[in-house]
Design brief:
Length: about 270
């Protein structure tokens, strides 16, 4: 049995296979979007090709046309084999953690948190190649388009979910480990004009609620949870829930990795903020 090139790639890439299947279904059920899903998904052989095309069409403009933007994105994706794995993990995180997301295709086409994060991955690769001005150009463009400002020098792991995404800011020396979830309005920032390592370190499985601000070179331990609207100025122990302004511990988290369950509930009510 022979396969078309795209089908051969899909056989060994379950995310890409699911994305293509969902695109074919949408093309049949919503003909008005058939040209969109064909251009963004079905005409491409690989997931990386579809991603570079889709993001370049969003980010490209008069200053950096979409064709050249796509060449840059393809260069980055081909230059770092691990990036493709990270992007797939991010897409899976959106689908698995967002009850409003009903398919990989939905997140791929429409979720700006996913788009902004993958553009960050490109800009981070450019930063590592010494192409810092181009990386900052891309950062600025993404900020204008998506209202998400992630410094290209920051270090972000895989399986990241940025829900809604509007107003998210991640500073230059911030670190976000694998499997973190954050909602809109989250800031990982500094506390003044100091130079050097000055931004938060967010460990694996942390859940950052809407509008949470984590400021300074402090650590939010593995599996911790920061309540919505909280301002965190001190380190947070692992598997601890903090809330308030300034944030204070109110008890343990109810699951080991709250980012995966997206559980924003608080511990039993015998705490004082």
């Amino acid at each position: 049995m022979s396969f078309l090139p795209a089908e051969r790639f899909a056989l060994c890439d379950p995310i890409w296979s699911a994305l293509r299947t969902q695109a074919e279904e949408l093309s049949s059920t919503e003909p008005s979007l058939a040209s969109l899903v064909h251009a963004t998904v079905l005409k491409h052989e690989r997931f990386e090709d579809a991603l570079s095309y889709h993001l370049a069409n969003k980010v490209g403009g008069e200053d950096l046309n979409p064709m050249l933007t796509r060449e840059i994105f393809e260069e980055a994706l081909d230059g770092d084999a691990a990036m493709g794995d990270a992007v797939r993990a991010d897409l899976s995180a959106v689908f698995e953690r967002d009850p409003a997301c009903h398919s990989y295709l939905q997140a791929f086409l429409f979720y700006k948190g996913f788009h902004a994060l993958e553009c960050y991955r490109i800009s981070h690769w450019l930063w590592g190649q010494g192409r810092t001005t181009l990386a900052q150009f891309l950062q600025s463009r993404v900020s204008e388009l998506f209202a998400v400002d992630i410094h290209p020098a920051s270090r972000i792991g895989r399986g990241i979910f940025i829900d809604h995404a509007t107003g998210v800011v991640i500073g230059e020396t911030a670190v976000v480990e694998d499997d973190v979830s954050m909602l809109h309005g989250v800031t990982l920032g500094g506390t003044g004009k100091q130079c050097g390592d000055r931004h938060p370190k967010i460990r694996r499985g942390v859940l950052l609620g809407a509008g949470a601000k984590v400021l300074g070179n402090i650590e939010v331990g593995e599996g911790a949870k920061v309540g919505a609207g909280s301002i965190v100025l001190d380190p947070v122990p692992p598997h601890t829930t903090v809330v308030g302004v300034p944030a204070r511990p109110v008890g343990p988290t109810l699951t080991d990795l709250p980012a995966l369950t997206m559980d924003h509930s608080l511990p039993a009510p015998d705490y004082v903020i």
